[in-house]
Every structure is written in structure tokens, then in C-alpha cells.
Design goal:
Blueprint lengths: L1 H19 L8 E8 L13 E8 L11 E15 L2 E8 L2 E8 L6 E8 L5 E3 L6 E11 L20 E10 L2 E7 L4 E4 L18
């Protein structure tokens, strides 16, 4: 009985620590965005056609290299182009993709670079008759995008970014076509901002 009570006491302490530290169960990082096909190099779609997308990232992937690169981090992708000629929805075929998080030399700007396809790895599911997309990348820049560049950024919206340009690359019968969105209209990174996490030492009060 005494051993059981001790185990229960420890369990209660660990639960209290878990709650006070602000630690949560690991969950994928989801990025949702909306925008429109830019007038600059519209590629195979119509100028100003609305676009939207969702990217799901595996937050258990460990960053490597000087730019804190998360390789093969995509677990889900949906890209929708609502063209007047017909809506096209691209998805990913398996894993792939990468995310890099780093700061400028002066430390004033932080970058979250997201890529899929091409050199970043990953393949698309392409609907029959749809333009052949080969890769895309989104370049996010801001003053305070992450507290720790080795942890995927969370809890961000378009207000956090000074720059959010997306480039989509297509292959039209051997001719490379570029479609650009210079500034995404809306962006949402799931989760709480890293800088708002409750520090673990506060949990010691429970003990």
C-alpha cells in the first residue's frame, strides 16, 4: 500500500510539472496560407487566380547543418489553384520537402525557408490534365519568427512576416514556367509562439 501511495504521489508531481512547464504532446506543425497568382510570370494559370494551401510538418525531425535544415519533414501538402478554367488541387506523394530556419548576419532578420519537390525532395500527385508542377518554395522573413531555430516555428500569422514570397515551378513540355505570389494574403502557423512558452524551472515550485 505504501509503495502504491508513493507511486501515485510521484505521478501527481510529474503531471503538475508537465502542466506548469507548458509542455504539450508532440503534434504536427500545420501551415495554412492563401494568396493569388501574381501578374509577374503567372505560369500556366490566370493572373490573380486565387490560391491556397496547407503544409503539415513532422515536428520530430531533427534540424541539421548551419542553417538548421529539417529534411524530409513534409507529411502532408495540399495546394489549390482556383483558376477560371477549372480548379486544380495538388497533393504530395509520400514524404519529402525541407524547412530551414536561420538569421541574417546582423541578427535583425529571421528566415523560414520552405521547399518541396526538386532539390528539396518529394513528389506531387498531379490530377489528369493539370499542369505539371515540379517544385515550390516559400520564403518567410521577419524580426522574431522563432525563439530557437532548431525547433520548427509555431504560432505565427501574416502580421509576423515582412516578406512572404512563394515561387511555384512548372514544366510545360520541357519549358520551365514560373508562377509567383509576391505577398501571401494570409498565413497561419499552428501552435503557440515559442517565445511565450512557460519556462521549466517554474515547475520546481510544485516540488
Amino acid at each position: 500500500m505504501a509503495v502504491t501511495n508513493i507511486l501515485k504521489s510521484f505521478a501527481g508531481v510529474f503531471v503538475g510539472v508537465f502542466i506548469l512547464t507548458g509542455t504539450s504532446v508532440a503534434a504536427p506543425v500545420t501551415i495554412d496560407f492563401t494568396g493569388a497568382v501574381d501578374f509577374f510570370n503567372p505560369g500556366p494559370f490566370t493572373q490573380n487566380a486565387p490560391l491556397s494551401g496547407q503544409i503539415v510538418l513532422d515536428d520530430t525531425v531533427v534540424a541539421t547543418g548551419p542553417n538548421n535544415t529539417f529534411n524530409n519533414v513534409f507529411t502532408g501538402l495540399t495546394l489549390t489553384i482556383s483558376d477560371p478554367g477549372g480548379t486544380v488541387v495538388y497533393t504530395n506523394n509520400g514524404t519529402g520537402g525541407r524547412v530551414s530556419q536561420f538569421s541574417s548576419a546582423d541578427g535583425l532578420t529571421e528566415f523560414v525557408s520552405i521547399a518541396f519537390g526538386g532539390g528539396a525532395g518529394g513528389a506531387f500527385n498531379i490530377p489528369a490534365g493539370a499542369p505539371l508542377i515540379t517544385s515550390f518554395n516559400i520564403d518567410f522573413r521577419g524580426a522574431d519568427l522563432f525563439a530557437d531555430p532548431t525547433v520548427l516555428a509555431t504560432g505565427l500569422t501574416e502580421a509576423d512576416f515582412s516578406f512572404s514570397r512563394a515561387n511555384f515551378n512548372f514544366d510545360n513540355g520541357g519549358t520551365n514556367l514560373l508562377m509567383v505570389e509576391r505577398a501571401l494574403d494570409t498565413v497561419t502557423f499552428s501552435g503557440e509562439p515559442q517565445s511565450e512558452a512557460v519556462p521549466a524551472p517554474g515547475a520546481m515550485l510544485v516540488l
